[in-house]
Amino acid sequence: MEKEKHHIVSYKTYVYILIALIALTFMSIGVTHINLGSYSVLGALIFATIKSVLVLSWFMHLKFDQPFLRFMVVFVLLVFLAVIFITFLDYFFR
To answer: pTM of this prediction?
Structure first.
């Protein structure tokens, strides 16, 4: 722990990320008002994925962590995507 570098991120960067998160939230709400059929859920999931990547990398400082932690988060995200994919397969072929 003593050898780790501390990364200082400016408030300006956090404000930009916050504005992006708010914009993506309104865009995901806007997608639900457009009749895309079964693709509206997919659109909402894409926006949620982008927002979670922003939160993980900047607010949780994953961008500056060790590569092993990044690998673990990517692995968990891949498992999550596999579960979502299997769920969509089950939904579409019922």
So the answer is: 0.68
Which residue, 17, 26, 28, is CA-closest to 54? 17
Q: Kindly write down the DSSP assignment for every residue of the chain, as one continuous string.
A: -TTPPPPP--HHHHHHHHHHHHHHHHHHHHHHHS--TTHHHHHHHHHHHHHHHHIIIIIT-GGGS-HHHHHHHHHHHHHHHHHHHHHHHHHHT-
Yes or no: say if 46 and 30 are a contact pair by the CB < 8 Å rule.
no
CA-closest candidate to residue 57, choices 9, 11, 22, 12: 9
pLDDT tens figures, 29-64? 888 888 888 788 788 888 888 998 888 888 887 777
Query: Which pLDDT tens digit goes with each residue over 62-87?
Result: 777 788 888 888 898 899 889 989 99
